[in-house]
Amino acid sequence: MEKPVSLKPEHIRDEKVKVLQSVNPIKDEEVVLGQYQGYKDDPTVPDDSNTPTFASIVLRVHNERWEGVPFILKAGKALNSRKAEIRVQFKDVPGDIFKCKKQGRNEFVIRLQPSEAMYMKLTVKKPGLEMATEQSELDLSYGMRYQDVKIPEAYERLILDTIRGDQQHFVRRDELKAAWQIFTPLLHDIDAGKLKAVSYKPGSRGPKEADELSEKVGYMQTHGYIWIPPTLA
Questions:
Q1: Where is the Glucose-6-phosphate dehydrogenase C-terminal domain (predicted)?
Q2: pTM to 2 decimals?
């Protein structure tokens, strides 16, 4: 969203509504649905069930700031990791004199859970006499940096906001309507059988078609780098 006029709840929620209203209709070719193998083994699930347990969707925001920038929303069950994060990937710099594109692009990651953190994944020079690069990070892990501060759970904050009468973290009616207007046509297409869920293995990243969709819209997956939350040990 754009910067609100002030920090008043209504001004913040006004901007949230504006950006939702700027989202273009979702294209079927920019949607991947998945269903993990074994889902239909449950006796309560019909053999012809098309219920998705995974979805990857590309959203396009039609405004001056975000025109041409794909927003990839991805969620699923029975995946190889359980996490919630926002990942901003930067484009390649023209004229890469270090020849390090194969290592992956720089990224700014906001880890919501588990292990709340913000870190910048970037290419750095390896220590030593040789000119070699590798992926590393600049890390702000909340549990390490703020050891004497109790970080509240999400619902703790909402309950406190309710007591204070602060509504900025709650969904207003027009925001809810704008959000449903984005996804309702897609849900109707799923119910009508126009979109089919593809199979994927439990414990994987999800359907390979999802990675192919991300690559198609410009996202480059980093291979070999894994962020490890820092510890006191």
A1: 1-218
A2: 0.87
